Amino acid sequence: MAYMSPAAPGEPYKWMTEAAKQQQVGGARLLDVAVVTAPAEVAAALELEEGEQVLLRKLVMTLDGEPTELTHSYYPLGLCEGTPMMEKRRIRGGTPALLNSMGFPPREFIDEVSAEIPTEEEAVELELPKGMPVLVAFRVVYSDDRRPIEATLMTKAAHRYRMRYRMQVGEEESRV
Known about the structure:
Blueprint: H1 14-21, E1 26-37, H2 40-45, E2 53-63, E3 66-76, H3 77-80, H4 94-101, E4 108-116, H5 120-125, E5 134-142, E6 148-157
């Protein structure tokens, strides 16, 4: 599934509605919500100083009851302090809908994609067969004025996932 606009107020997370369009049942299991020290790659992506704290929301996404994606989503603390994002509970419509309602709509994202050998955590959470590689996407989401609002590491069970990208080709050069 592609990156989608945030869900409308009161609507379910787009993962669920997009799965239903494909005759699948999408789900999400929240594993953890914690304030952590930003990994170096995340700090750089979010334009933070090394060692700064961020909010981590960790989930397992499912399709038809099968785990397909393990996500580690990081947010600058200044964006999420005092919001439902800090609570260990799922957010109706997901964090993109909440951020949008707070005045931080997603305007652009950049993905870096690779194929890798899974970590032990990834193999367990995604119920991977021995020797199965994973697809890893590191996504940075930007709001107005190209302000980074989210950095997410998405580890996808390679045998259960297909990625499709659509990009406009035109006069404006893409930023890489």
